[in-house]
Amino acid sequence: MIEREDEEHLAFATTAGRVLYRFNVGDYCRLNDQVPTHAGLILAQQQRFSVGDQMRRLMRLLASLSTEEMRNRIEFLSAWS
Question: How high does pLDDT run on average in the chain?
């Protein structure tokens, strides 16, 4: 999927039933408005969190929301401190 468009990444993840974790916040917020159905999006600003902090926040999010709850939803990593 290297060098593929954002729309293709989202379509691939949706088909596979996977939540997509990306740093491209603006583009994926726009895509969320255009694509009515997806498996979910987790967005973070690039270089804002260390790898360890990203993992801790992702683990909190994963422990709190089910796959079904993530459907068609955007979560911002910054909200999961």
Answer: 96
